[in-house]
Amino acid sequence: MHDPSNLTLLPPLARRTDSKILFIVLDGLGGVIGPEPTALMRATCPHLDALAARSALGRTIPVADGITPGSGPGHFALFGYDPLAMHVGRGLLEALGLGVDVREGDVAIRGNYCTLDAEGRLLDRRAGRLATELAAPLAAELNAAIGRIEDVEVEVHPGLQYRFAAVFRGPGLDGHVGDTDPQAEGVLPHPARARQPAAEKMARIAEAFAAAARKVLGRRDVANGVLLRGISGRPPLPTYQQVAQLRPVCIAAYPAYRGVARMLGMDIRTDVEPTATVADEVAVLEDAWQQPHDFYFLHIKKTDSYGEDGNEAAKAGVIESFDAQLPRILALKPDVIVITGDHSTPGPMAGHSWHPVPTLLYGPWCEPEGAPGFDEATCGRGRLGPRLPATALLRLALANAGKLAKFGA
Amino acid sequence: MHDPSNLTLLPPLARRTDSKILFIVLDGLGGVIGPEPTALMRATCPHLDALAARSALGRTIPVADGITPGSGPGHFALFGYDPLAMHVGRGLLEALGLGVDVREGDVAIRGNYCTLDAEGRLLDRRAGRLATELAAPLAAELNAAIGRIEDVEVEVHPGLQYRFAAVFRGPGLDGHVGDTDPQAEGVLPHPARARQPAAEKMARIAEAFAAAARKVLGRRDVANGVLLRGISGRPPLPTYQQVAQLRPVCIAAYPAYRGVARMLGMDIRTDVEPTATVADEVAVLEDAWQQPHDFYFLHIKKTDSYGEDGNEAAKAGVIESFDAQLPRILALKPDVIVITGDHSTPGPMAGHSWHPVPTLLYGPWCEPEGAPGFDEATCGRGRLGPRLPATALLRLALANAGKLAKFGA
Questions:
Q1: Hey, is the C-beta of B389 within 8 angstroms of any chain A C-beta?
Q2: What pLDDT digit, counting tens, does each position of B11-70 carry?
Q3: Mean of the per-residue pLDDT values of chain A
Q4: From the CA of B384, how many Å to the nearest CA of chain A?
Q5: What pLDDT does residue B99 have?
Q6: How far apart are alpha carbons B381 and B361 in whole angstroms?
Q7: Domain count along chain B
């Protein structure tokens, strides 16, 4: 999906105005058109249908035709950053999502606590899905016992359940190191291997960290080791302030999405609980609306979760619960609204897919088409086209919000 | 036509599965929508229409909007290789198509036997469309008499009628040499000119070859000289095995198409005669279906030939003869089917054209659209869109076949 780089195209054109853009991402929103109706087709959504009639519709391609996006690439594309032109590791996203300050030059790791047998073989890659209450004390224990390896500071941050993030800060670190997680049980973890000569030091530090963690945790029955994944440096990315003069804010419950938002310079509303309902998130949105922001990213996770479970009925239920909150959202009178997903997660496929994502653009100059509703088939016939690059949405939103000057005289 | 490079995008995502992809290329399939019905519109194709209803439709752009593709670029695009990012000469394609082993560093030439007058001026660029029976003895004569020029081995291989291919193997050869064929009669052939300094040696060898051939053939009334065209080296191209873990096979009657397939690492079924009918080719397909291949390229030539002749009725007849064989093809139960062309060859234009090519994608997750048939107008309204880059088809086929992992976590 080659679309011009917003990172070079937009900065000279972007201008600050008071208009407000609301970007609503229903994670994994899309389904696949086939013999069974998709979740969007099943859901009864009078408010969404009414908004669709006043909007332009289309289907968007996050990465490229036929390519199934992970969550990271899907979100970067929606925010206008070409995912094929960047490499952002999951470790970095996880750390950023936990609110950790990751600086250029740092390396971040996404970790699992795991259970190993006496010979060091994996018994359980997730340590029995360890309770979240144990995450903070375990991290504190590791930080107290390790703290530093050679000239590198190490910080462990607790995540949900068996997950943690670790950040390594020191001279000469490079994130091109392979995972130690073998993705199988009954075998030894992989050694941390450098994938580039520049990463030899980081590979050595990662190995030493895994060995030290095993020693610290070793007396336990469960969670007596760690697996390291998504080892990654922080690429220099321009922020939304730099790209488009925006003052953005993120309303999301899950760490990884906050992580993406933080990388782009968004303020993060930390008063969204992991268990927040759509109504809870909208309450935070209403509060944030009083603040001097002009770009609001509202992320709703459960559409994807139910899609991954193959449960189209429950996915439709999440969409209906969003529809029920839409009047409160519209009462805020956003100048521009985008409603879309970061990728499709069709229930019949029980996973992410490559299918173009249903997308709605509402704004003063959006060319409304009076469509009868909002679903994959209707969007596929919409004015935005059947395969719009997702990276174009930011430009269309900015344009409708009056935030882009003319290109050339 | 900007589409990401499959050559870098696909290798980390591709995975081998048992599912089978069938790629059917009706050469020059497309027509131009206008006052007269196209060949596809004229043809009565009940089986194709029924398949179209269960498929996704669109029109594809092989090279770029408004650009008329030659056969080589058209096929490379269909196979997912951006024709604008590569330069593959016709000499190379011809030699590969004749089954000649062309290695990196070799230079290949596509030649015509021609008839020259006493002053060396061209009387007939094709030597009276010399009978194919003469091709092998002439090649043997040239090989016996020449064999080597300086430190370069020369091999002449017979083609159809007046055509031959020659391969030059030796140190320091570069294919950037212009044609000697002036594309006109009554004039002298061009000298072989280097278009880059690195190609000076090859230009000298080509000149010496043309002079030696003239001397060997000189006593004849017809075919007393040669014209050299499409002089070309062999660029390093990753194969289908490397790009997508595929085990591909080619079923094509004509040398140039086999040449493209061979460059991409496809096995070539040599039991397809130049005179093979569609039914003959399908018989070979049925046999190949029992082999451990997972990508089948079936090429049907005559649609293009009749399009070039301006004979839409005959072109429609070829499409009908393909339709008659379609039940045998469907009985093989391919997991994914693509039916398309390498470019359009509208009868009213009697040549290749830039018009988007009607394309059908059938697969388990193709989003069938219940279209009433398969022609340019219907495809132009299809879900794949009116101008899908042809290079996206490989990705869509692989995705539908379950052969692509997720991009990013």
A1: yes
A2: 989 999 999 999 999 999 999 999 999 999 999 999 999 999 999 999 999 999 999 998
A3: 94
A4: 7
A5: 78
A6: 14
A7: 2
- Are A267 and A370 found together in one domain? yes
Task: Verify whether the Cβ–Cβ distance B383 to A386 is below 8 Å.
Answer: yes
Of B369, B384, B395, the CB nearest to A64: B395
Q: A90 at the B interface (CB within 8 A)?
A: yes
pLDDT value of position B409: 63
Comparing CA positions, the residue from B15, B404, B369, B58 lying closest to residue A354 is B404
Whether A405 maps to a domain, the answer reads no
The closest alpha carbon to B173, from B198, B207, B148, B155, belongs to B198
Rounded CA-CA distance B398/B404 in Å is 6
Partner-chain contact B407 A346, CB within 8 Å: no
Q: Are A323 and A43 in contact (CB under 8 A)?
A: yes
Last residue of a domain, one of A233, A266, A282: A233
User: Which residue of chain A has the CA closest to B405?
Assistant: A68
Confidence of residue A218 (pLDDT cuts 50, 70, 90): confident
Residue A55 touches partner B, C-beta closer than 8 Å: no
Residue B263 has pLDDT above 50, yes or no: yes
Residues A311 and A395 in one domain: yes
User: B226, B112 in Cβ contact below 8 A?
Assistant: yes
Give the model confidence (pLDDT) of A267-280 as tens digits. 999 999 989 999 99
Show the tokens assigned to A48: 């969404």
pLDDT tier at A1, thresholds 50, 70, 90: very low
Chain position carrying tokens 């919409």: A382
The answer, for A95 touching chain B at a CB cutoff of 8 Å, is: no
Which one, of A57, A61, A78, A54, lies nearest residue A295 by Cα?
A78
ipTM score: 0.86
Contacts of B408 in chain A (CB under 8 A): 69-74, 83
Could you tell me which chain A residue has the CA closest to the CA of B395?
A: A66
B62: closest CA of chain A, how far (Å): 15
- Kindly list the residues from chain B whose CB atom is less than 8 angstroms away from the CB atom of residue A1: 3-4
Contact state of A352 with B406 under an 8 Å Cβ cutoff: yes
Cα(A336)–Cα(A359) distance, rounded to whole angstroms? 13
Tell me chain B's radius of gyration from C-alpha atoms: 22
Inside any domain, residue B177: yes
Q: Are residues A204 and A271 in the same domain?
A: no
* Residue A273 is assigned to a structural domain of this protein: yes
Over range A152-159, report the average pLDDT: 95
Residue B256 pLDDT greater than 90, yes or no: no
Instruction: Please determine, for residue A235, whether its predicted confidence score (pLDDT) is greater than 70.
Output: yes
CA distance A171 to A168: 10
The whole-angstrom separation of Cα B252 and Cα B276 is 9
Last residue in a domain, options A203, A233, A263:
A233
| Yes or no, beta carbons of B409 and A68 under 8 Å apart | no
* Cα–Cα distances in angstroms (integers) from residue A68 to residues A60, A343, A356, B15, B277, in the given order: 13, 8, 10, 14, 39
Q: Which residues on chain B are in Cβ contact (under 8 Å) with A67?
A: 9, 13, 395, 399, 404, 407
Chain B environment of A355 (Cβ under 8 Å): 365, 367
Partner A contacted by B12 (CB < 8 A): no
CA distances from B71 to B26, B28, B46, B109, B343 (A): 12, 9, 29, 17, 8
pLDDT 10s digits, A346-398: 999 999 999 999 999 999 999 999 999 999 999 999 999 999 999 999 999 99
List strand residue ranges (DSSP E) for A181-335, in order.
225-233, 248-251, 267-268, 295-300
State whether residue A70 sits within 8 Å of chain B by CB.
yes
Residue A19 lies in a domain: yes
Report chain A's C-alpha Rg in angstroms.
22
